[in-house]
Amino acid sequence: MLYSATINVMVKAARRAGRSLKRDLGEIEHLQVSLKGPANFVSLADKRAEEILLQDLSKARPGYGFIGEEGGMREGTDKSHTWIVDPLDGTTNFLHGIPQFAISIGLQREGTMIAGLIYNPANEELYMAERGQGAWLNNTRLRVAARRELADALITCGIPPLNRADGHARFQSELAHVMRHAGNVRRLGSAALDMCFVAAGRCDGYWERGIQTWDMAAGIVLIREAGGFVSDAEGRSDMMSNGTVCCGNEYIHRRLLDLLREADAGRRAPLARAAQL
Ligand code: LIP
After folding, report:
1. Within 6 Å (CB) of ligand 1, which residues are found?
2. Model pTM?
3. Please, which residues have CB within 8 angstroms of residue 19's CB and are 6 or more apart in sequence?
4. What structural domains and CATH numbers belong to the chain?
5. Radius of gyration over alpha carbons of the chain, in Å?
6. Which residue from 129, 49, 57, 123 is spatially nearest to 91, judged by alpha carbons?
7. pLDDT for 206-231, tens place per residue?
């Protein structure tokens, strides 16, 4: 298990914010039945958790920059280090009382992700990784799955919601193509936990487009430290800036990238033909 001072700081902050989210999750069940629904309440829960993380992380590491889903970028005096934080990844699950959501804290030094922690307070699963120190789930060391064949693989993905309908056609063609080759596909609803599940060998691969830096920052360290590969959806290393991600073990990562490329080519071919007519 990881015991560095940095990880301890992250664990303490995540556990305190986690207690707040867990209390709020208890309230959600009562609010589900109200006409207005729990949406406003969830956005307050999100803000409360981010405030706790900001307070605790800034107190322990004064000067570090802080990028949070809710509050955006807060520059620090230490230009080398930045926390990249999602106080509630899997908001839709949380809103519906589904206990698949997480706090995600990544630490970046000079542009490189060096530590990541992802915590689901609903089931107490705490995923941690630090560069060169391995990836852990509570006290257990993590390793990506060894499966090499797509036909045996369980792949997770993200589905663009209604307010990102411009991504639907592309997603549908990718999903159709992945379904033709992979053993099975899941949509679990938290990008951070999807990456943890790949790091833990529960799932074999994951891809998504249109996600944010804070959704993937901590997960990138987890995947790499568990022996996996992570890139953007084109196989390049700028996933943080272009908001697409694809990961898995060496074999599944490569095959998944092939499938995404083929799906894209298949979708463009009729469009190109139509343009020539
Ligand atoms: C969400 C996720 C979800 C993904 C969405 C979104 P939020 O994060 O983790 O799995 O599909 O694109 O980014 O909004 O709950 O923090």
Report:
1. 69, 86, 89-91, 158, 189-191, 208, 210-212, 215
2. 0.95
3. 121
4. 5-141 (3.30.540.10), 150-276 (3.40.190.80)
5. 19
6. 49
7. 999 999 999 999 999 999 999 999 99
